[in-house]
């Protein structure tokens, strides 16, 4: 069981750092930012952070998109409209 606990703590630390990373780098997701369309720059930033977190770039980007999709769905659900 100890291994599982350590892995979960590591995952939480990675998630915390990833959240902070995406907050600090709006150009990765905010279409209003000038550098948003600079794919090479966005890729370099993602690669640097993925290396720092010891995960793959695809893993980092997929994690972000999944969290973003959940947030969008959650906002729609909490609109107060009744389905009945």
From TrEMBL:
Top-rank taxon, per record: Eukaryota
InterPro entries: MADF-dom (IPR006578)
Organism encoding this protein: Muraenolepis orangiensis
UniProt protein name: MADF domain-containing protein
Limits of the MADF domain: 20-74
């Amino acid at each position: 069981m100890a291994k599982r606990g350590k892995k979960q703590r590591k995952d939480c630390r990675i998630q915390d750092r990833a959240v902070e990373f995406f907050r600090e780098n709006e150009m990765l997701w905010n279409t209003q930012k000038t550098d948003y369309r600079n794919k090479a720059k966005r890729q370099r930033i993602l690669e640097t952070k993925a290396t720092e977190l010891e995960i793959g770039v695809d893993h980092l980007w997929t994690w972000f998109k999944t969290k973003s999709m959940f947030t969008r769905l959650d906002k729609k659900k909490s609109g107060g409209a009744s389905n009945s």
